[in-house]
Fold:
Amino acid sequence: MAKNMATLLFLCLFLSSAVFTSADDASSSPGPNDSGPPDTSGPPDTDYTSQLPPSSAQIPLDPDTKIKVIIEGVVLCQDCSTRGTWNLYNSKPIKGAKVSVTCRDSKNRPVGYQAVESDQNGYFYAPYDVGSIADYYSGDPTKACFVRLLASPDQGCNALTNINWGIVGAPAIYTGKYFTGPDYTTVILEAGSLAFRPGPELCPLSG
Structure:
């Protein structure tokens, strides 16, 4: 029993330390269909602190159903106090930030590419043409579509971060939002919160 408890304690400590590993280095980050560590730090009533959880939810529609996919998310400026983490406590929305939204077809070829800008609330959305679910890679838009940061117009906050995989490709996650119209069903996917941060001259590393 004592040996089992010691093993369990070690695993808990290991997993806890892994959650707070910096995500700024994209070279070792997983691909666009992997989910990042959840952000649980910061006051619970602070905007933007909760991240999209990993999701295995399937879009509950027949593969031949005609759908219109919309991908949405927000772009923020990470506060210097949380640099090197995935924490978005005290972050601010960036107006006019550019992101790329890419979807792949059933043969894994990029066929849907858009460069879109965020509004005054940092919110962006990218609508796609009507097609069938089977037209998307693996018959699943959540496996076919991803979002990457491109540029920030804020000269004081234009350094890329990989928060929620904004550099390597943020997955478009299905969270149960869809509505049916007379000719097609609209499916809304979420890329979560992506972020730039101030450069080192404005946001030096502590210590």
Summary: The helical segments are 2-19, 141-144. The chain has one domain: 25-197.
